[in-house]
Amino acid sequence: MSSLRKEQLISAFKQLGKYLNQPDEAFKSAVYSAKNANAWFTEDEVNKSVKALAEMLNEADLEQWFENIEVTTAPKKVGLILAGNIPLVGFHDVMCVLATGNIAQIKLSSSDNKLLPFLLNQLCEILPELKNHIIYAEQLKGFDAVIATGSNNTSRYFEYYFGKVPNIIRRNRNSVAVLTGEEKEEEIAELGHDILDYFGMGCRSISKIYIPENYEIKNFFEPLEQYQDIINHFKYNNNYDYNKSIYLVNQQKHYDNGFLLLKEDEGLSSPLAVLYYETYENIGDVTEKLKQQREQIQCVVGNLIDKDLQVLRFGESQHPKLWDYADNVDTIEFLKGLGD
């Protein structure tokens, strides 16, 4: 197997980023195929994912990210069990494995098995040497390490099967936003992307907001009206109707703007088409609570300033950088350790 060079890899990912900014007819055909296979992968949602990925693969960030990467000359086979909750969600894990010169043995999610192979094929056309570093598998075999993404339930199986090799095993995480009541309308409108992009199905999707006591709910709902077309998606609408009927039958207090239900709840993980909220008197209590729940939280969005919390601005949760690793576990450092 020919060894990969860092300069080759940087150039290849830069070219892929440019391709994503100007996708051709073949890519549009792949999007159509993905849409037919998974009703959640509408053209709009796939395009959002592609745009975010193109932003991630910008030249300056690639140069900066690769500075800390060592491309191995003794590749290890890394098994990847990928999620499929949003389009191309598994790309970053594959990229990390390839960027370090290792071999990606990929078990695709049945929910996202069209777009990723297409993009990786494009990458191999740019840098043919990568063909020897990508393997698709129904069942992982002969791996030296594993990166597996699943639910809290599947993580127990992953730990049982993969516990004897170096591993990263990801569980359910949720993202939250903290409002102070001083937000501008445009900031709440941007928060709408954090909540509703990909129908709220990503781990970076906001599933709960913290609001001050006596907060005017209309100040939250009115700037979100631009997203009302989401209710026209039949699967999303089914979830909205189902949860609304449950709350009405059980006489549970909730707010409803016609496409998003807002319900008071101490939990972090809200059902689809529902956003949980919790009120607070002292914002310091919220930051303390978030620190205690750090292991369950992927992102925090808001205008908070706290040295112990990494807080994103409104509208940024669905636009991760190359170094924004899932569950705050540095995948590159993990892969470096395989050579020790």
UniProtKB/TrEMBL annotation:
It holds the Pfam family LuxC. One of its GO terms (molecular function) is acyl-CoA dehydrogenase activity. GO terms for biological process: bioluminescence. Keywords: NADP. It comes from the Bacteria. SUPFAM superfamilies: ALDH-like (SSF53720). This is Acyl-CoA reductase (LuxC).
